[in-house]
Write a structure and sequence with these properties.
Layout lengths: L1 E3 L5 H13 L8 H6 L4 E6 L2 E12 L2 E9 L8 H16 L3 E6 L2 H5 L4 E3 L9 H4 L11 E6 L1
Parallel strand pairs: 4-5
Antiparallel strand pairs: 1-2, 2-3, 3-4, 5-7, 6-7
């Protein structure tokens, strides 16, 4: 069952996300960032342990970002990523969001959900405020993807 994240999930979420970040597959997240944005996150737990997470972060009045999609290696290919992305997209629809974007190193995976490649420059400047603090800025190798809801 997918559910909204709780305070007690944060350290497990960080371990999951940052494990993939160490492999250079996604960006690391600090505890501070996760606590500040807990309401953005959905999790999948198994026997009390977080095995997957994803966040929907509102960027502007008609734009949101899906970020930090991570599923424990042991649980890959079981539909958990699909469930997490569906939860984020459903929430976006409920909030009246018209467009959802993401920046990813794995564009092929997300294209299966109807995301299309776009130019980084087509995204509003507001989203780059977070990027400025990224250790990979300005040499971002992530692919920008967009889905119209």
């Amino acid at each position: 069952m997918i559910r909204k994240a709780r305070i007690g999930d944060i350290k497990q979420m960080q371990a999951l996300i940052n494990g993939f970040a160490r492999q250079d597959i996604m960006l690391a997240r600090s505890l501070n960032e996760l606590y500040e944005n807990i309401r953005d996150f959905w999790v999948k737990a198994d026997k009390g342990k977080v095995i997957g997470c994803a966040a929907l972060h509102i960027s502007w009045d008609n734009l949101a970002e899906i970020k930090s999609v991570a599923v424990a290696q042991k649980f890959h290919k079981k539909g958990i990523g699909k469930e997490l992305i569906a939860a984020c997209l459903d929430e976006a629809l409920q909030l009246g969001i018209k467009k959802v974007f993401m920046l990813t190193y794995k564009p092929k995976y997300f294209k299966r959900f109807g995301f299309k490649k776009i130019a980084h420059s087509s995204l509003p400047h507001k989203i780059w405020a977070e990027c400025i603090h990224c250790p990979k800025f300005p040499d971002c190798k992530e692919t920008a993807l967009l889905k119209i809801l």
